[in-house]
Design brief:
mainly alpha, 8 helices
């Protein structure tokens, strides 16, 4: 490999690292500083009703406050248990899933197209206001849908039925979050 190629590769990796860190920081600032919105407040109320205590077991599968399955509520219950009843506790899985969506999208676009397409793709998604400010349910939906699409694509490219079937299982998990995937 020529020295010029090595330098351009290092610049690309530095640029990628900068972009990924910038997008994470942007999302993190939103996560900890913005007030909770409609769905988040409702999910927070429902998550406080969930109890894993054997004497007071309460594991709802539906709630009149929301018209969606409750995967996001259970994820919120877990994150509140870990990080407290704070904006970070409420939005931790939203932050995690949106960040993982960027990483997965980048890896997919690099393998399907090019590193330039991967960088451009994560910039388009990461700077989209919907992605920056998405609630937990939307972040989970995007993450699982993206995983399912990539698994399906990889399964058809490599002619592996297992990956195609796995893509169906992953999209089924997305349906546990929102029925309109």
């Amino acid at each position: 490999m020529k020295m010029k190629d090595i330098n351009s590769l290092l610049i690309r990796k530095d640029l990628l690292l900068f972009v990924v860190c910038f997008l994470f920081i942007l999302r993190f600032i939103f996560t900890v500083s913005c007030p909770l919105r409609g769905d988040e407040r409702e999910y927070q109320v429902i998550s406080h009703k969930i109890s894993f205590d054997s004497r007071n077991l309460n594991l709802p599968v539906e709630d009149p406050l929301v018209k969606h399955p409750l995967l996001a509520v259970y994820a919120m219950k877990l994150s509140i248990s870990l990080f407290g009843d704070s904006p970070l506790g409420v939005r931790f899985f939203s932050l995690l899933c949106s960040f993982l969506s960027l990483i997965i999208l980048y890896k997919f676009l690099v393998s399907a197209c090019s590193p330039r397409a991967g960088l451009f793709g994560i910039l388009l998604l990461g700077l989209n206001i919907f992605h920056i400010s998405s609630t937990l349910a939307n972040s989970l939906t995007l993450f699982f849908s993206l995983c399912s699409i990539i698994l399906f694509w990889k399964g058809t490219e490599e002619n592996k039925g297992f990956l195609i079937a796995l893509s169906g299982a992953v999209i089924a998990v997305a349906y546990l979050n929102k029925e309109l995937v």
